[in-house]
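User: I'm preparing a small set of examples for a lab meeting where we compare how different chains pack in three dimensions. I only have the primary sequence for this one, and I'd like the structure in token form so I can line it up with the others. Please keep the answer compact; I'll paste it straight into my notes.
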Amino acid sequence: MATPSALETLIELATKETDEATKRLGRAIRVSEEAQQKLVILQQYRDDYAARFQDTLTTGLTALSYRNFQLFIEKIDTAITGQQDVVRNSQQRVAEARTAWQACERKRMSYDTLAARAKEKELKKENKRDQKAMDEHAARITFYKR
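Assistant: Understood. Below is the structure token output for the 146-residue chain.
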């Protein structure tokens, strides 16, 4: 069995590893949220542009303006598709970071459990030693009183 100092070292290392995994998870979540916000902005921009186009249709539109609108909408749609890929990838990284954090946390908790058991075992030994000393002391007092 590992000595308490070795176990404490393992706990300290596991805690540091868990802290780093927590930071990586936080960064991944932040990047994912930013990617999602960019996607929403692109979608809103497309909707706004399409609404403006609908308004201009009522006043009349040249063939060139119509073609320019189509090309621009295609570019926006391509950007949206690309951003959707970025969002999916960032969500995947969040899932991976969360899994890594959970593994680190489980390891840290298992070391904590081992430390608690070792402490409890040591406490029982100490209590047993104290009880034995008390019993011997009581026996000596009883023996000398006779």
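A couple of notes for your slides: The chain has a mean pLDDT of 91. The chain has two helices and no strands.

User: Perfect, thanks.
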